[in-house]
Records
---
Amino acid sequence: MQRKRFVLYFKPLALLSLFMGLVIFMGVASPILATEDINLVIDGKSISSSPSPVIKNDRTLVPVRLVSEALGAEVKWNEENRSVHITKGNRSAVLWVDNRLFSYSAGQVSYSLCDVPPMILEDRTYVPLRLVSNILGVTINWEGLTRTVSVDSNTPAAFTPFFDAAISLIQPGQLISGVTELKAVAPISNAAEVKFYLLDPVTGMGTVITKGTSISGTYSWKPDTSKTGQHILVAAFYDGAGRFLTGDAVSVNMAVQPQVSLLGIVSGQTAVDTLSLSPSLNFTPEYVKYEITNTDKGKVEVTSEIDPYGVYSWTPEMTDNGSTSIKAIAYDSKGNSYSSMPVIINVDVERKMALRGITSSYNGEKPATIWFSRNFLVSEVEYLLKNLQTGQVEKLTPTARQLSSWWFPLPEKAGSWEMKAKIRDTVGNTHMTDPVTFQLTGKPIVRLETVGPNEVLTGTVKLKALYNTYLSKIEYFLINANTGAKKFIAGGSDPSIEYSWTPGQEDNGYWQIQAVGTAVSGGAIYSEAIPVRIYLGKTYGPQPIIEKSKFQDYVSALALQSQAKTGMSAALQAAQAILETGWGQSSPVDKYTGKLSNNMFGIKGKASAGSVTSNTWEEYNGNTFRVDADFRAYQSTEESWADHKDLLLTKERYGPFREVMHNYTEGAWALKRCGYATDSKYPLKLIDIIERYELYKLDEVGI
């Protein structure tokens, strides 16, 4: 079996100023230069090595096996975790490639951070000679005149940390069982952000658990119940460009003891109206439910999944009156549930009811759906109309098993009216809502119901009208918006039925459609002229961005790049793209030209490639219909990705999201609270995608 080749690097202090000009910041790699004229002497013996030493980032690098064997140390490589294990007597160390974290032991394992992480160059592993020398207790000297590095294993050297930063509130090996306060201090003035990580001691990888711009501030950490046993807590400070400055690491023992308590109510309280409930938790949950039990009646109600970081409003009804037990149940990422102690309250709400669907401003010129709100069980209802001029009372009775009633008053109802609901509860008692007074104009009305403003008609059109008077016939006309010329397109003597019209090629263009009813008493009644577009040419629908089987890898790469720049959870970013594009299979295109938009998140407006015209939904007269809308078009999907992240990172409304965007669970719920999506299940859908397809692994990073 071929052995893995290793290289150690060390930093001769005298070379620092010589090679400062070689360091290029802002993420651009520094050049690697050969340093064949540097001499390496170990315990008085000159060492020649192949490959030759190199300079990178002002550091001189040499093969690790050469140095370790000369020092009598054993070196092993772990391919799975990309780690180097160095052992000599009772001393040992573990270094992870591309990770500043390292462990060292001279009897007891400790953790720290180095200034430059081990790296692989030309299939060889390079690790800091100074670091290895430090943890093995040997001395290194630099002789500038002869350009010689001398390693002396006979002169002991104490361990010297690379940084002066310190985690101040946590002791090594401290037990983490719940909410923990975190703070770190560092003698630097240019830090812009501090991040706390929880890393696995085997892989050296983990996630950001909290972060902020208050450099000397104290942060509250709610741990994840899935993290158990020994872990490494790291505090890392970064400048305004996101470059690592300094940090510290300490081992902790994770043994979370989940605790849940219910906020918003107290035992013995009497509830007479809506209650605002929220959980107090000492761990990070995925969602919560509330169990509400009427202990007098044995009635149990359990809510659906609720935002664990928000407030849930519960409005009790009269059927809830009596002794009521309420508890919060929190669920972790493994589906385990943890309940609060029940809080016993007394519910004593008064009977409440109100007429809905009609207000004092109602004038009868559009239909109304009359209903009522109440907090008790109902068996039947009728709506009473009283003419305030004559005192005459009429009734509106809903159809069987319905509690609402549709009403479009006739013109002869002109005048002042009063309406109230007469409600019969399930035990036979009758109750009245407060009346609502309104004025009807008595204007005859015809309303076109089946076509909406700016709707695009691409085929046969259904035409139906609503009206509040007696008609002898109904006619539908196509109107030239420029000349006013009309063309009859459908109609007949039965105004109640639905008519159909199929436009021809000559009808392509922008028009208005109007319904005209002929009253039985004579005279025409005109609906509003609704602007429409008729288009009978070829139309194009959403198109795939990439093959479905390749989409997860594609967006994962974009998410990781963005995470490195912004700190936003890569798992959350990838899940949003998957959900909003249907695994990359649905991106808007121009419905008339087929122009691709590269738009991954359905953002409207214009972008670098202009816009595309696609469908969106509107509502008119209670019906939904499709209209054209401009969606941003980009030169590439990468531009779309960056634009979406800019939206989340700069818009004021997403401020609460940015505070927790490193955590995919908290971030998903924050997006909903910030108004990103109207779908109440949007956070749960994102979380499900993340966990089902193990996208959470994208958030695992080193230092």
---
Amino acid sequence: MNELAIPGLPEYAFGGDYNPEQWPESVWQEDMALMREAGVNLVTVGVFSWAKLQPTENTWSFEWLDRVLDLCHANGIKVDLATATASPPPWLGLKYPSTLAVDETGVRMAWGARQHFSPSSSVFKKFSLALVEKMVERYAEHPAVVMWHVGNEYGAHTHRCFSEESADAFRAWLITKYGDVDTLNERWGTAFWSQWYSNWDEVMPPRKTVYFPNPAQQLDFKRFSSDAMLELYKAEVEVIRQRVGRQIPITTNFMRFFPHADYWKWSENIDVISDDWYPDLADPESHIEGAMGADLMRSLGAGRPWFLMEQAPSAINWREVNPAKPKNAYRRWSLQQAAHGADGILHFQWRASVRGAEKWHSGMLPHSGTDTAVWREVSRLGQDLKKLKPLLGAKSDSQIALLLDWSSWWALELDSRPSTRLTQMEALLDYYRPLAQAGYSVDFAHPEQDLSRYKLVIAPSLYLISDLGIERIRAASAGGTNIVFGKFSGAVDAEEGVRVGGHLMGLRDVFGCYTEEWHPLVAGQTEEVLIGSNRGEVSGWTEHIRLLPGSAIEGTFSTGDLAGLPAIVSKTSEKSKAWYLGCTPNRDMIASLLEAICIQSGAAPVLYSVPQGVEVTKRSNENGSFLFLLNHTGVEQSIEIGQASVDLISAESFVGAVTVGAGEVRVLHLP
């Protein structure tokens, strides 16, 4: 049987956040009728309704929510019920200021926006769990509820807090990790700059300082802050699970490559991975990031179906300029998420608000009603998704994995680096882009996972690697997996310290080299690398690499201080091959290099000879295989797939070549 993301919803999910508390009750019946017309079958209810549910500390008002859930049930619309803890009511901050977050300079945040709570506040936790208990007691067995939704976008606005209560919690977290202050001193390197701690009371969060804080302290505080938010989530889950069986999944919404929460750790506690995606329309390659983020979500769920929990059908309202989505982009980008494993497409929000900070954020039902282009596109997508039921639970098969570790990301982008111009996202895109454009299916993996099932594992910039990560890399290489390390990888250990002996200790025999010295390039500076007879520019970063026995030079610097020295090194072992790139190649160079590495690794794309600008993915289940062809160009394209197929959406049949209109999508069933 195909695995359903939500057992109580055996069809492709379509809908969004429904906030009826913003509207008079006389509007609700119209909402139901229009939802049915658009094909909506799932709505998220109650995300920002705490102030309506608990107007004062000692009063509760659930009757309106009773009517909303009953109305949804009567109209055949399932509910993802939120715990409403994402935005505390004003009375809580006024009466209990300790619930409010404090920034690194000591300023306490005010209420009046959203998510202004301190993740370490015991008072906030007490009141939030009391609300959840009331919700679960009342709605645990409501027939409309098929999923529970805890919080909302954890860390989007208050991913850390520097209050005294947070400092106490940080110290407790450190005691659990290190045991005693002497071990902390050793791992943090506090002998430097006379930072040695004699007792735990001296240890505090990395508040505003006169110069660089201790980088190990900064890194641990980022880990602690992610864990503090996760503990809030887990506490709410525990309350829900006391009354709600495992057949009802529990989720919270991620934010793709969000830099303030370790989603690998979070994903272990989430039944259905859910994600929010708001592409930057100023980026002509936003579809590349769209595919990459979707692959991350699929990977976080170990390949299981996931949900796009939020997107906008058109414009948003929080960037400097917020244009409407281009023609066909909304539908194509929505189906792109399905192409990469999503079994639900939802939005923020159902009906566009007429007041408040997000009234210019487009809704499924626009201000101008149903006689609008947005409504017609929403309704078209809703009908299209009904036809995708056969692919529910279908999975992807990837032979290539990119390594991503949030601890390494955090450490890479701290302030005391050889270059603060290096970013994790840029490094990931540098390697993901050419693989996606060549038609390869790509997973993401944590370096401490078992990597042996992949033919090729790539670490675009894995600055920090733990001892266990080194063991996993070595085991994968010994088992036949090819390995690629990009710039500044393997530089420090799990506590942000350089291993005795220097770069790549524990992996030098795998790569046949190490870096003697980093040579970052200033803005606008480029150097040249020679690979065979081909020359290409590198920018941003170079390294002085030292060779070890058994290695081979794949590329050489031909200009600058490193001229004549290796830029790219490989080493072939008994069962595999490893490459180290001590530079940032330009797009043509990295594409050519990865193409050769994929061929040597035996990794195959989903399809060969796909036109530029056409994205191809494949999902399979017991009903067969499903090939997605997404045309991101402005002209019709023809793709040879080599077998008979039927388009699930249009019902057209093809033999061999398939045409895809400009900006359009085909979802082909391959029996």
